[in-house]
């Protein structure tokens, strides 16, 4: 009986140690917990770091994030398609216009650089503000989930 018990423990430990490691260098995204998935409408913008907000009325702008690591930005009917990676630990997402290497590019790391956007999300995950990583954060945009 002891031999069966020890064999079961050994097999269990062996199978745990042989689990497949993620292909992503940055492993801080739980896709099932990706609050970005869905369609978001641009509703307000701020030019003072979020201290005051103005309603966004220029043109219809929305972003549709998908759980496959892509999103579409629609600005007044013109669509642009991107790959992205949500980096929750750093409160940013990396993005790049879709091309032959965009998916591997955004999954390299979670550095906030030219292709990074910082965000703040409310507790209900129905509003978020974003600003570019290479900016001082003064200009911010606020999106509301549909």
Structure report:
The chain contains two helices and nine strands, in the order H-E-E-E-E-E-E-H-E-E-E. The chain is mainly β and 146 residues long. The protein has one domain: Lipocalin, CATH 2.40.128.270. The protein has an eight-stranded antiparallel beta barrel. The longest helix is centred in the first third of the chain and has 16 residues, at 2-17. The protein starts with a helix and ends with a strand. Residues 1-31 have low confidence and may be disordered.
Helix segment count?
2
Low-confidence stretches: 1-31
The main pleated sheet reads as: 8 strands, antiparallel, barrel
Radius of gyration, taken over Cα atoms and rounded to an integer in Å: 20 Å
Distance between the termini: 59 Å
What is the number of beta strands?
Answer: 9
- Helix proportion range: 10-25%
Q: Which architecture does the CATH hierarchy give at level 2?
A: Beta Barrel
| CATH class categorisation | Mainly Beta
Mean pLDDT: 80
Please write the string of helix (H) and strand (E) elements.
Answer: HEEEEEEHEEE
Strand content: 35-45%
* CATH fold descriptor: Lipocalin
Note the overall shape: globular
Strand order of the largest sheet: 1-3-4-5-6-7-8-9
Number of domains: 1
